[in-house]
Amino acid sequence: MKNIIIVTFISLFFFFLGWQTNDKLFYKAKSESKKDTSRIEQAENLSRYSIEKLSHYLIQVKHLLITDLLTETSKHSSYKFVLEFAPDPEKNHVKKVTGRITIPKNPQETKPAIVIMLRGYVDKTIYKTGDGSRNAANFLSENGYITIAPDFLGYGESDTESSNIFEARFQTYTTVLALLNIFENEINSEKIIARNLNSEIANLLTQRKQVFIWGHSNGGQIALTVLAITSKNYPTVLWAPVTKPFPYSVLYYTDESVDEGKFIRKELAKFEKENQVDLFSFTNYLDKINTEIQIHQGERDNAVPVSWNNEIVMKLKQKNKNVSYYTYKLADHNMRPEWENVMRKTFDFYESKLNNTQNLINQSHM
């Protein structure tokens, strides 16, 4: 009997000990699970990238380094460049963006303007520096213009982009703002370095009097956002620009994703918890755009519906903005088979703006 009592007592003791231990472990695991979930689901405040706030920042630039010769023809040469800058306007963490710069062969025939070329979407796995703008850049350089086309973070030999997909998007804007900072401010001319190359190349860049912008597809969205941020006069040509409001302009293409957009929708839900999406869409800041714009749109474009640009042109004109609009019945997203026609109109547009600039310069010296 005594032995039975002892065995029973010991069994009860270990039962309660085990129950309490498991209970503690259960609540600890549950608590840690809650903490981990909270950390993972926590949204990031990206309001510093809103159009209004970016308009008050000066994106810090370390230098623009021109390095390797990429291609050379009888009319122009192209080089790789490395832009080192701080893509986050509130942090000093410097990253590098690579890209392609094309320069006319004859310095005496080089126009006093530089064209910033902003490409559309290209799959990272096949992307090479200059893709998406190479042909247009070559045409412009063969006709006297220096062009510069950033790869953007995550592309080419650039540093990695932000793990936050929306910050990665917004840092395409700060990349362009960094380039504008370089070419607009004479104090930054010393930051243009042509390593192991003819110093005349750096001199050509610092002597440019005006900046033009060219954008295709999503590059058009980047261009319009930068125009809204800066409110400055950068004569701009856009080919099939993405002009629907953010974030619809992102969601529209999600069916092309492997997961049919599940990840992007999840990230957008998190983004909207901490950020007011209206503050990030250039369509809400058309009043701030203060330059002449030329838009080209193919009616057989299967990436950007022609109705989008019909609508944005109407809205810009309602705001009394100076915009010219050309549509092409047979043209696709890349303006084929009208490419040469569109390219000629693009060139003529820049020439007309250049002449206006030259007239202003001449009048200022009279």
What is the structure about, briefly put?
It contains 10 helices and 10 strands. With 366 residues, it is of the alpha/beta class.
Structure, explained:
41% of the residues lie in helices and 19% in strands. The chain is of the alpha/beta class and 366 residues long. It has a single domain (47-364), classed as Rossmann fold (3-Layer(aba) Sandwich), CATH 3.40.50.1820. It has a 10-stranded mixed β-sheet, with helices on both faces. Helix 3 (134-142) links the parallel strand 4 (113-118) and strand 5 (146-150). It is globular, with a radius of gyration of 27 Å. The chain starts with a helix and ends with a helix.
CATH topology: Rossmann fold
In total, how many domains does the architecture comprise?
Answer: 1
CATH class: Alpha Beta
CATH-assigned homologous superfamily = Alpha/Beta hydrolase fold, catalytic domain
Structural class based on helices, strands and sheet pairing: alpha/beta
